[in-house]
Amino acid sequence: MAFTKADFIPFRSDAGQVIANLEASYEQWHQARQSLAALPSSMFWQSKGGTDYLAVKNGSYDSATTKGARSSETEAIYASFVAEKETARKRVAEADGLIEQRAQQYRALRLPVMLDKQGELLRALDVEGLLRNDLLVVGTNAFAAYEVLCGVKFPAGNEPTQDFDLAWCRGSGVSLARLPKKEKFMSMVSLAEQEWLLCGKAAFVVVATQRHRACPLYVPDPRWMALHKLWLARKPERNAQKRPKDARQGEVLLDACRYFLDYAYPLNIDFVLDLPEELRDLFNDWAQSNGFSPTNA
Question: CA-CA distance, 56 to 203, in Å (whole number)?
Fold first, then answer.
């Protein structure tokens, strides 16, 4: 299936500024939230044997440890903690308000959104320092980021889904044990084809959620994602009901790279020569069907 440039609906002219503003306010929130997360969860005075001790908890489920008996030094530590925590909380609240305002502007333009629960989880991963280093968002939910990168709405069939996949980056020793226990994480067997999604240049994008929050998305290089989707569409073990959607998404994304990302993600000879044989054959089939020559990209 070939898509022409006319099949993609351009965002409004002011969308770029709205998207940039949302990302800037999210980065403010992210920095403030990381500063808050770096502080102990609580610090308080605990009386034992008639003496007050400064107790510290680094997590809500941690046992308290002491910094020593009340003294000018421990009182200074406590005062500094209270001031830092209050400042961090104010920064988070201010950024939250700014995000809500800008997310409303974003939603008014009917730009790509993510579901709220997914946004909550991805924000938590980002605060933990995992999303941009150890984890990638893959599958259908990555397509919101690709639409933002291209500045266009893709043809139908790329709406966010309730479940979504995360890919571990190569060599990551990350553990999800500290995240909320209500979330269910199912480990997947590492497959050679999953390595393809780690190639190229990953992209970071911030989109709004349905209820006016911000959702960070760190997604694979769109060229490699497109070919990965086309490969899945032909994989014998793949669910037959998913193959048509895989094929459509792969075609859409390759055409989007061709029309809108030719500078940042060129489909040129250098890219083609880096492809493994399985993906190179798929790219050549697509190029021949669409009259595309990588030497002219």
Answer: 39
